[in-house]
Structure formats: C-alpha cells, structure tokens
Amino acid sequence: MEIERRSLESRQASARDMLRGDLEGEDLERYVEERVVTTTFEKMLNLARANSIFPLTFGLACCAIEAPISIVTARYDLARFGAEALRASPRQADLIILSGRVSIKMAPVVRRLYDQMLEPKWAISMGACSSSGGMFANYAVVQGADKFMPIDMHIPGCPPRPEAVMYGFNKLQRKIMGNPDQGWRRRYNALGTEEWARGGPASKPSIESTEAYELARELAVTEGPAGA
Amino acid sequence: MPDGPGLELLRGEIDVDAPGAVLATSYDKERATLIVDPARIVEILTWLRDKPGQGYRFLSSLHVADYLPAEPRFGVHYELLNRERVERLRVKAMLPAEGPEIDSVTPLFPTANFQEREAFDFFGVVFHGHPELTRILLPEDYVGWPQRRDFPVGGEPVTFTYSEERYG
Amino acid sequence: MADQRAFPQGLVDEDPAAPTVADLYGELDADRTTEVMTVNIGPHHPATHGVLRLVVDLEGEVVRDLKPVIGYVHTGIEKSCEDKSYWKVIPFVERMDYVSYFFQMEAYCGAVERLIGLEIPPRAKYLRTIFLELNRIHSHLVWLGTTALDLGAISMLWYCFRERDRILDLFEMATGQRMHTRYFQVGGVIEDIPLGFEEKCRQFVHDMPIRVGQYEALLDRNEVFLQRTKGVGIVSHERLLDLGVTGPLLRAAGDPWDLRKAFDYLAYPEMDFKIPVGTVGDNYDRYRVRVAEMVESTKIIGQALEALPGGPFIADNRKYVLPPRSELSTSMESLIHHFKLVTEGFRVDPGEIYYAIEGPRGELGCFVLADGSAKPARVHFRDPSFVNLQSFRDMAKDSYVADMICSLGMLDPILGGVDR
C-alpha cells in the first residue's frame, strides 16, 4: 500500500515536471515512451469515428421499438459505446438503422434520407424484413434494402434482440476502425459517386483526395461494373 | 345479435318500408347477415340507423371480400353495431366482377371515409359520392388492385446460390 | 407610429436620429392578412411515432387544416395471409400492430375458432387473458414513454421502458421471444407457462400499481405537462361516434364502452374490473384513462392468476390441434395427424366471421372468409389506429402546432396497424 502510494506520488511529480518543462534527458525519454503511442492520423480518426457515432432517429416498423428506443434505455444503454446521441436530422447523423420492412412507398424516402447524410456514413439493416424482405414476399415490400442503397451490416432476427443489435453495432465499430474504405462502392458498383466539396479555392480538396477521386473514376471507366 | 327468427322479423319490417331491397338473409355461426340490393344500400343503412327501434348507429367496419369464382364477385360488408342492445348485424352487398360500383355511405357514417378508400385501393370498388376517392395505402401511381384473388402475391423466390455453387 | 423606435425605450440612449421601425421595415400594411402556408411533416419525423406523413395548412402557428398521408409501411399482410395455411397466418397478423401482438393473435385465433366451432379449455382462456392484459400494459407503457418524451418529459421514457422490459421478460419466459411471440394457437395456447412464471407475474402485479403511482407523481403535478394537455384536442362525443372512434379515446369523452364488458369472451366475464372514463375528452383525460387502465389491467392479471384453473392448455381436437410431442413416438395416428397438420394444415368449411375484441386502442376486429380449403380466402383487420386516425383532423384543427404533436401522441396510432 505504502509503495503504491509512493509510486503514485512520484508519477504525479514527474507529470508536473513534464508540464513545467523541467523533465530532461533520460527521464523525459522514459516518460514519453510510457505515455505516447504513435499511430497514423487515419487510424486515430477512425478510432474517434467509431466511438462517436450519431445514429439517425429513424424507425420503420416493429424493430423501431427495439433498436432506436429500447437500446438507448437503461437496461441496454447504447451510451456505453458512444452512440446515445440520436439525431433527428439526417444531415447531422452518420448511421442509419433500417428498423423494419421497407415498403415500395417508403423506399424512395429512405434513399433520400441516406443521400442527405454526410460522408462518412454507414447503414445497418436490422431484421429480416429490411435485409431480404423476410416473410413478406409480396407486392408491397422491397425484397431487401440492398436493392436501393448500400448496407454495411445486416442483423438477423425478427425482430433482433437489443443484444443482437449491439453486437452488430460493435461489429460495425470494428469495421470502421479496421478498414476505413468500406469497399461498398465497389460492391454496389457505385465508383465515382464520391462527394467532394468543390467550387472555390477555399474548398479545394486535398491532393490525396483528388488523386483518389481520379483513380476511382478511372477504375470505374476501365474496369466496368464490379463483379461483371 | 339478432337470432334467426329475429333476422326474419327484421327483414319483414324492412320489406314494409323498402320492398325488394333485401335479397336474402343468412344466419350462420351465430352471426346475422342481410344481403341487400347494392343500388339501395344507402336507403337500407339509413333505415337501420334512423328507424326507431333499430338504432344501428355505429359502423364498426367496412370491408370488401373477393369471392372469385362466384358471380357476383365482390361482397361489400358493413358491420353494424347497436350499442344499446349490444347487437351486431352484417349487411352485405354483392357487386359484379366487371366495374364494381356502389354508393358511398360516408355522408351517413363519416367513419367509412378511410375504409372506403382502402377498399377502392385494394379492390377497385368505386364508391359514388365519396369526397375523395384516391389511393390511400399504396403509392398514388400504382397500377392494379392488389388484393383481388387473381392478382399475384408478388415477391421473389429465395435463391440459395451459395449452396448451389458449393454442392451442385 | 412615426416616433416608434426600432429599439425599446430605455434600453438605448434616446437619439432622435435613431431609425424608426418604419425606416427599417417600411410602413406596416394595416390590412395585411396572414398567409396560409402548407407544411409537410414526415414521413421521417421523430414526433410522428412512425412513418406517418402530415400535410398541414398553417396560418402562423395555428393549424387550419390537416391531412394525414399513410401507407408508408403498407406490407400487404392481408394478401400474404391468403397464401398461407390457417396456422401459418398467426405470425403474419402479429406484425400488423407491432406493440399489441397478443391482441392480433387473439382476434385471429378467436375468429378461426368461432368459424370451426372449437371451444377452448378454461386454462387457455385464463392464460390468454393474462397475456392480453400484460400486453395492454406493455402497449400503454410504450405509449406513455414516447408521448411524454414528445412533451419534454424525457425521464418518463427510461421509467416506462424499465417496466416494459419486465413485461418482456415475462413474455420471454413463457414463449421464448420478446416481441412477436406466436403464443396463441387455434384451440388454446402453444405451451403451458413454465415453473416460476406465476410467482414472477405476481411480483409484477404487486409492483406495477406502485410504479404507476410514481408516473402520476412525475406527470400529474408537472405544470408544463398540465398546461399542454388540459383543454387541448377536445372532440365532441357525437363526432367521435360518427368517426367510429373506440377505445381510450371514446372512454375519455365519458362513454363507458368497452368490448370486454359488452361481449363476453375469454375469462373477462369472471373478472372484476372497472372501466375508467374521462369527463371532458381532452388530452389530459386520455392520459388519465390510459394510466387508470394500466392499474385495472394489473387487477385482472392478479385475479386471473388466483383463479387459474388446471387442466389442458389446448383443446383436444386432433383435427385442428397438434398432438402432444410425446405421443408421436408411440401412436401412429398421432404421427399422421401431426404430418397432415404441419404439411397441409386443417381445412375450414366455407363461412365468414367478424370477431372483435377490445385492443389497447379500441375495437380490434378480424374478418376471416373461409372457402373450404386449408388457406383463408380473406383475412381483414379492422384496426383501431386506422379508424381513430380519422379523428385527428378534428382534434388538431385550430390549435397550435405544438398541441397537434401532443394530440397525435395521445391518439396513439401505431403505423404498422394503420397501414397493415
């Protein structure tokens, strides 16, 4: 106990010295080694993105009771994963959860909501209905939301339990952290649809993004549709 | 619910005021049904609603059923309720397969507004005198009457491509 | 008018050169009329409780006209039902009104049972009653949480969903699913309740009135809540009846009409419960009626648990009901019955029936038309949300936009039920 307290005190002292700029030489190096992790900017950005997702307050049918409402309440508490701030406007959200069946009347609306969200954006298709049409194989339901918008994660169930939704959500977080390029543009044959702010010199894209854009365009032209 | 003899008495009373309007009666599964002439549906329902001693003032439900091989093909069902005597009475008007049309009862029972629109939406039954007879649940540009029996259910067959590729 | 300053007096130094309102904005037109503006709300809007779209004519902040546009979750369930055998229809009808799934099942199963003349055993009646009333509380809890959230009382959401999870635990214990349980079967219920269910249910029945008291303590003396609900959204009793409105909306207007009392079905005739009614029919009465209904429902559950009879939980008619699992390995006949029921389903003689029960939102009717085959020729639901939504224009007309949101919450439409 005494030793722990002493080591704590010495650590506090060294931190204070560090802030004052008094730490030097070997001490400084050891301090830096202990506390600083080097990584790429991209990885850090993805870490931040994955842990501060703003889901859209959007419900379609049965699953809406379970996913946007039930998982933010006390028992399941999505706030543990940094996603409790639901946003009602698609322009402020970066995750859309399709919770329920998508009818032919609703599909254009959903697509429009997805288009209004700013990139980077993700989409979870929750439940059997929005993933594949589920049991409703009939004239009124779109047989899978894949048909009109890209989906990053499918959660099975009818409706899925909140635990299942959270598991899917964690999977999505890993996906965001591990692979910044989701690859959905290739899967859904949507290369060249990237949104870049263009116009005046102030909004000129960085060289990297311009190159990526041109490359994507080129690929789309030369290679044709993905999977063809 | 009026029982079998009660239903016949009711028919007799209607026949006094509106002769020939009731085509048939049926009493099945403890439910009484009057099958009436579709051209005189408003007359009958007004009589049932306003005649002293009747008082079927509450229209529970209005729906259409498709009796496909039969002719006349469409049946418009009016589920009436007398809340004082706690009695239900079904009035049914049969419509032909070609151009089914009937007078709207929305002026009589405002609750029929949405339900007649729904019947029009799904079966193409035209209700004359309805304030706004448009599609209600399906998109406005939808073509067809999807809940008729001869309309295909739709959907897609499920393909198991993974198993097919793997196991032939 | 001429010496009216653009800034309130006293706030800025008196300066004769300061611009007047007229200088800044021009002379106000004396006979200027307010313009009516049409605003679209939804289908994606957090306050519409689903994908309801409202086209609202606004004069300033006052709603002058309103038109609900529905059909955004139209699923074609009634059509799909025509393509399934009778017992496969049950999971479909559950997904219509997705917070009162037990009621949909009861309406459908009850209609089919009356069509084939099948009497269900007393234990099944009591079990069904228990689950229906649990579901009624569940439905009202979802309503109370989301509506209070719309009115700014966010903590109600956490409390209501805490109790909702307890109900769902009970459902899960008995049926294995949280939502869409498919527990009711033609002829009874699919399985008996497990050991320990009664005790857990009794604990819930004991706790729930206390919780309801806590909700009331939070809301009943909340000045904001009272101001926003009292005297808002009144529709006359005659107009409500004309529009076919049933359930808590009608009872809030002082009409004690409840199908549980009017028609005898299940174990309700043996239960002792009251029908809460309102006096004025405003949004506050609607809230009070529903909250009181929750307490009455707990009473019914308690009585049903006390009087729960023994015996079979499903009818013993092998023509319509699956034989018990244990018989399959010993009896050839049972195996044949099982095979026939699972592959083809049972056939129902031609006939048609309309069977209505009291759902959490009003009269929930099911119309089944049988044509003699193993599949129903038509399944139609008279959904209370669909019919009640017609009264929304009367409720919200000539009130403020904020009151319209309140009225919509108190109307409690479930869009899955509206669109089916």
- Beta-strand content bin of chain C: 5-15%
> What is the architecture of chain B at the second tier of CATH?
2-Layer Sandwich
CATH topology of chain B: Beta Polymerase, domain 2
The first-level CATH class of chain C is given as: Mainly Alpha
Inertia-based shape of chain C:
globular
CATH superfamily name of chain B? NADH:ubiquinone oxidoreductase Nqo5 subunit
Q: Number of folding domains of chain C?
A: 1
Strand content of chain B: 25-35%
Strand order of the largest sheet of chain B: 1-2-5-4-3
Largest sheet of chain C: 3 strands, antiparallel
What would you call the shape of chain B? elongated
Order of strands across the main sheet of chain C: 1-2-3
* Estimated radius of gyration of chain C: 26 Å
Q: Decide which structural class fits the backbone of chain B.
A: alpha/beta
Mean model confidence by pLDDT of chain B:
87
Distance between the termini of chain C: 59 Å
- Helix content, binned percent of chain C: 40-55%
Our measurement of the CA-to-CA distance between the termini of chain B, rounded to an integer number of angstroms, reads: 61 Å
CATH class of chain B: Alpha Beta
* Beta-strand segment tally of chain C: 8
Total strand count of chain B, please?
Answer: 7
Provide the fold topology.
The complex is a heterotrimer of chains A (228), B (168) and C (420).
Chain A: H1 2-20, H2 25-35, H3 41-50, H4 62-69, E1 95-99, H5 107-116, E2 122-126, H6 127-132, E3 153-155, H7 162-178, H8 184-187, H9 207-223
Parallel strand pairs in A: 1-2, 2-3
Helix pairs in contact in A: 3-7
Chain B: H1 4-17, E1 22-28, E2 31-36, H2 41-50, E3 58-66, E4 74-82, E5 87-95, E6 101-103, H3 112-123, E7 126-128, H4 161-167
Parallel strand pairs in B: 2-5, 6-7
Antiparallel strand pairs in B: 1-2, 3-4, 4-5
Chain C: H1 21-25, E1 36-41, E2 53-59, E3 62-69, H2 77-81, H3 90-94, H4 101-116, H5 122-150, H6 154-175, E4 184-185, E5 188-189, H7 197-219, H8 223-229, H9 237-242, H10 248-252, H11 259-262, H12 283-306, H13 332-343, E6 351-359, E7 362-370, E8 376-382, H14 384-388, H15 392-396, H16 401-411, H17 415-419
Antiparallel strand pairs in C: 1-2, 2-3, 4-5, 6-7, 7-8
Helix pairs in contact in C: 4-5, 5-6, 5-12, 5-16, 6-7, 7-12
